[in-house]
Amino acid sequence: MKRFLVFAFAAASVCLQAQAPGVGKAVDWNKLRPEILDRYRSLVQIDSTAGHETLVVDYLKKVFEAEGIPTQTFALNPNRANLVARLKGNGSKRPLLILAHTDVVGVQREKWPVDPFGAVMKDGYIWGRGSKDDKPVLVANLITMLMLKRQAVPLDRDVIFLAESGEEADLEGVGINFMVREHFPAIDAEFAMTEGGGADIENGRVARVNIGTAEKVPARVRLVASGTAGHGSVPRLDNPLIHLGAAVEKVGLWETPMRLNETTRTYFEKLAAISAPERASIFKALLDPKTANDAQKLLREHAPGQYSVLRTSVVPTILKAGVGANVIPSEAEATLDIRALPDENIEAFYKELAKVIDDPAVRVERIPQTRPASPASKLGTDMYRAMERAAQAIYPGATVIPSMSTGASDMAQLRAKGIQSYGVGPASTEADQTNYPAHGDVERLAESSLYPFVQYVWNVVTEIAAHK
Ligand SMILES: [Zn+2]
Questions:
Q1: Cα 87 to chain center, whole Å?
Q2: Confidence of residue 150 (pLDDT cuts 50, 70, 90)
């Protein structure tokens, strides 16, 4: 019965879906559902933890080739291949890249109530590792390519499909780093769309659609304190633990300057417009320099995630020191996970950090980063507007909100190459986001969220790429 209700809700949202202009034949989404579900479940059933991504490439290759869509594979490591498929446009506009990663994080089988690679359907959900991260985006991109081909949709721009390996774990650089470095012409585009957004379900309907437009830049450092080694029975002023402890306290409590950018300003403005009065007043206060300071202090205490998007954050995460209870070591070390605003002057920031520590016994060592600094993508582009229109068509009444991730994604490499890149994701409830998150012990996606999400991706792609 419960299953039936979920199904009915999804069906209602389908009727309201508008067809993108320029697309000749309308897609019969009800008829397409079994295929969407079957392909999605097939993808979830592939155990594509790091080192096994080629299994997904093999599946996709077969599907594309059966439909007459040529593919290319690019592999630095033969077990971790990437796949590209391209549908040609008339060349009047620059390409659109739709990408998704094929790898999933590992599983602890004993935590799962079902087979983590079974794509088991239970209680209205499809359960499995990758069911959220990132196989919904992968299947939405796949179905979009198949339907563009089947309907022979005339395109103003090439649509490039990329299935990439190693997003979750890529010490070898087999995925986006390899594609950008060695095969950039195969994926070069004006716009890109991938994971990194989402939508929030409240009281049974989608209330907010989040478009990922920016992310913070990892800029981690190590603090190393040095002193004289000695006997634990003799106190020394140059004990590195004392110096490191003081430095960690200073930087951990350092209130770095708050600064809004186009994305975060719009994010808080939109939230202010739709939030309950008490929260709305905090968000409004953030936008006014006279009241921002008190408002952000409230966020620091009650909403650390939102506090973090206001600034470059400094978070101590590892401490290392000592060999024995009776030994003063000559060195002590702390790791700081620094996440910079996209426009941060990182050299100046490190200088400021050293000033805050203000101790010659403590030096700051940079840790090499695997992702480049990346500028935020713009909100005024044709692509962003296409995404807004598509969101309004598929999720009527929802507020569209741009968001900056405090984490990092493969959009960093694309944005660093000048591609305006945007994040999407299927809708979920707050309870599901908390209890069944990406990378959590157990992952699942509501079947009723899958179909509208595929339609959303299709609508965006046809809006921005179809010849009108
Ligand atoms: Zn992911």
A1: 25
A2: very high
Tell me the CA–centroid distance for residue 201 and ligand 1, in Å.
20
Q: Which of 367, 366, 332, 361 is nearest to 351 (CA)?
A: 366
Spatial separation of the C-alpha atoms in residues 213 and 421, rounded to whole Å: 7
Distance 96 CA to ligand 1 centre (A): 20
Does 6 score more than 70 pLDDT?
Answer: no
Could you tell me if 190 and 380 are in contact, meaning their C-beta atoms sit under 8 angstroms apart? Answer: no
Which residues is 206 bridged to in the sheet?
201
Q: How far is the CA of 391 from the centre of ligand 1 (A)?
A: 21
Distance of alpha carbon 116 from alpha carbon 111, whole angstroms: 9
Strands 427-429 and 191-195: unpaired
Model pTM? Answer: 0.90
Element containing residue 86 per DSSP (H, E)? strand 82-87
CA–centroid distance, 259 to ligand 1, in Å, is: 28
Q: Which two tokens stand for residue 407?
A: 């984490």
Pairing of strands 221-226, 217-218: unpaired
Helix 277-286 / helix 292-302 crossing angle, nearest 10 deg: 120
Q: Which residues pair with 428 in a beta bridge?
A: 200
Which residue type occupies 68? Answer: G
- List the structure tokens of 248: 């960690």
- State how far the Cα of 175 lies from the Cα of 167, in Å rounded to an integer: 7
Q: For residue 205, how far is its CA from the centre of ligand 1 (angstroms)?
A: 24
The tokens of 263 are what?
A: 């994305």
The torsion angles phi and psi of 135, rounded to 5 degrees, stand at -75, -20
Q: Extract the runs of DSSP E, i.e. beta strands, from 75-180.
A: 82-87, 96-101, 120-122, 125-127, 159-164
Which sign does the torsion angle of CA 66, 67, 72, 78 carry? negative
Distance of CA 386 to the CA centre of its chain: 20
SS3 379: coil
DSSP state letter for 110: G
Residue type for position 10 = A
CA distance linking residue 368 with residue 187, whole number of Å: 26
pLDDT of residue 25: 63
Quick one: which H or E segment has residue 318?
Answer: strand 313-321
Cα of 134 to ligand 1 centre, how many Å?
5
Say if residue 134 is preceded by a cis peptide, omega within 30 of 0: yes
Query: Averaged over 169-192, what is the pLDDT?
Result: 95
Q: What's the pLDDT score for residue 15?
A: 38
Of the candidates 464, 345, 451, 375, the one whose C-alpha atom is nearest the C-alpha of residue 38 is 451
Residue 443 alpha carbon to ligand 1 centre in Å: 12
CB 47 within 8 A of CB 55: yes
Partners of 388 in beta bridges: none
The predicted structure's pLDDT at residue 370: 82
Q: Find the mean pLDDT for residues 235-244.
A: 98
